[in-house]
Specification:
With 368 residues, the protein is an alpha+beta fold. The protein has six helices and 15 strands. It folds into two domains: 46 residues; 262 residues, no CATH class. Helices cover 31% and strands 32% of the residues. The strands form three sheets. Strands 1, 3, 9, 12, 13, 14 and 15 form a seven-stranded mixed β-sheet that branches. Helix 2 runs antiparallel to helix 6 and helix 4 runs parallel beside helix 5. Its main location: membrane.
C-alpha cells in the first residue's frame, strides 16, 4: 500500500512546499492583484464575445417560384408637382405586372420641404380590370387615343402607351393652369408606397408619362426644361434585417443647369434572414449601377427616373448563431492558465530584482 501511494504521489504535477518554506512578499501581492484584475477583464471580454451573435452567410441556388417581389419606394421630387408625376412598372414580357391592391401615396411639398397636402392614388399601374369603373377608364383611354393625347415612350424593347388615372383629369386648359401655378410656387412632390411585382426582370419608373402630349407641351417648351431632380429616402425590395444597407438610401441627385434621364440598373439578390428564435424573414439585397443621360432640346422623350432591375439566380441565406459552449470553456482555460503562468514568471522576476537591489544597498553600507 505504501509503495502504491508513493508511486501515485510521484505523478502529482502540483507539488506543494511546506508552509515555513514559503515566503510572502509585497511585490508578490502587487503582482497577484494585477493578475486577478487581468483575469477578470479577460473573462468579461470572453463572456461578452460568447454571448454575441455570429452571422453566417451561405449561398445557394434560388428555387423560389410564384412569389411576388415587393418594391418599397420613398422619393421626393423637389422640382416637379404631384400633378405631373406618374409611376409605371413593366416586366420583361412588356406587361404591367403589379398587384391591384398596391397603394401609392403622393404628398405635395413646398420648396422648403413642408407638406402642403396629399392625394391617395391607388393602382397607378395599368392592369386587368373587370369593374364598371375599369370599363369607364378604358373608354376614356380610347377617347384620348382617338384625340392623340396619349404619350408614347420608347425604352429599350418596351414601347408602350401609358395611361393612368389622374386626379386632375378634365379640362386640359385647367390642368395646364394648375400645373403652371404649382411650378411658379416651386411646389414639389413626395411619392411613396409599395409595389408588388412578379419575380422577373423589369423596370419601374417615375416620369411625366401620365400627362397627355397636349398638356405636357403647354407646360414645358421642351424636354430639357423638365427637372427630374430627386432624393431617394428609401428604396428596398423587402423588409430590412440587422446589418442590411441599401445602397440608394439617402441618395440625392439635384440638377442645376441641365436636365436628363436617370437610370439605375439594379441586381437583386434573394435573401433569407434566420433569427435565433427560428423565425425566417424573406427579403432581398441589391447592388446598383447608375447612369445619367442629358436631355437635348430637340428630343421628344421626356426625362424620367428609371429603375431597371434583374434577379440573381443565387440566393443568400443569412443566419444568426451562438458560439459553442465548448469553445468558451477552452478559451477561458487558456486565458486563466496563461495569465497565471505569466504572473508567476513576473513575480519571480520582480522578486529577483528586489533581492538584487537590496543586496546592492547592503554591500554599499558595509563598504562605508
Amino acid at each position: 500500500m505504501g509503495l502504491k501511494s508513493t508511486a501515485l504521489k510521484s505523478l502529482n504535477a502540483f507539488p506543494r512546499a511546506e508552509e515555513h518554506l514559503t515566503q510572502k512578499t509585497t511585490s508578490g501581492a502587487a503582482v497577484t492583484i494585477c493578475g486577478l484584475v487581468l483575469m477578470l477583464t479577460l473573462f468579461i471580454h470572453e463572456l461578452s464575445f460568447q454571448l454575441s451573435t455570429v452571422i453566417v452567410h451561405e449561398m445557394s441556388v434560388d428555387v423560389k417560384r410564384g412569389q411576388k417581389l415587393p418594391i418599397v419606394i420613398n422619393m421626393t421630387f423637389p422640382a416637379l408637382p404631384c400633378a405631373v408625376l406618374s409611376l409605371d412598372a413593366i416586366d420583361m414580357s412588356g406587361k404591367h405586372e403589379v398587384d391591384l391592391d398596391t397603394n401609392i401615396w403622393k404628398i405635395r411639398v413646398n420648396k422648403d420641404g413642408y407638406i402642403l397636402g396629399s392625394e391617395y392614388v391607388s393602382d397607378l399601374v395599368e392592369g386587368e380590370h373587370t369593374t364598371d369603373v375599369a370599363k369607364e377608364e378604358a373608354a376614356a383611354k380610347k377617347a384620348m387615343e382617338d384625340a392623340g393625347h396619349i404619350h408614347h415612350e420608347s425604352h429599350g424593347e418596351d414601347a408602350h402607351g401609358h395611361f393612368h388615372e389622374h386626379k386632375m383629369m378634365g379640362d386640359p386648359q385647367k390642368v395646364v393652369k394648375q400645373i403652371k401655378k404649382a411650378l411658379e410656387e416651386r411646389e414639389g412632390c413626395r411619392i411613396f408606397g409599395v409595389l408588388d411585382v412578379e419575380r422577373v426582370a423589369g423596370n419601374f419608373h417615375i416620369s411625366m408619362h401620365g400627362l397627355s402630349i397636349f398638356v405636357a407641351q403647354q407646360v414645358y417648351a421642351s424636354a430639357s426644361d423638365v427637372n427630374v431632380s430627386h432624393v431617394i429616402h428609401d428604396l428596398s425590395f423587402g423588409p430590412k434585417y440587422p446589418g442590411l444597407h441599401n445602397p440608394l438610401d439617402g441618395t440625392e441627385r439635384i440638377l442645376r443647369d441641365e436636365s436628363g434621364t436617370f437610370k439605375y440598373f439594379l441586381k437583386i439578390v434573394p435573401t433569407e434572414y434566420s433569427y435565433l428564435n427560428g423565425i425566417v424573414m424573406p427579403t432581398n439585397q441589391f447592388s446598383v449601377t447608375e447612369y445619367f443621360m442629358s436631355a437635348k432640346v430637340y428630343e421628344r422623350n421626356w426625362p424620367a427616373v428609371y429603375f431597371v432591375y434583374d434577379l440573381s439566380p443565387i440566393a443568400v441565406n443569412v443566419r444568426e448563431e451562438r458560439r459553442h459552449i465548448g469553445h468558451f470553456f477552452t478559451r477561458i482555460c487558456a486565458v486563466l492558465g496563461g495569465t497565471f503562468a505569466v504572473t508567476g514568471m513576473l513575480d519571480r522576476w520582480v522578486y529577483r530584482l528586489v533581492e538584487f537591489v537590496s543586496n546592492s544597498n547592503k554591500g554599499k553600507s558595509v563598504m562605508r
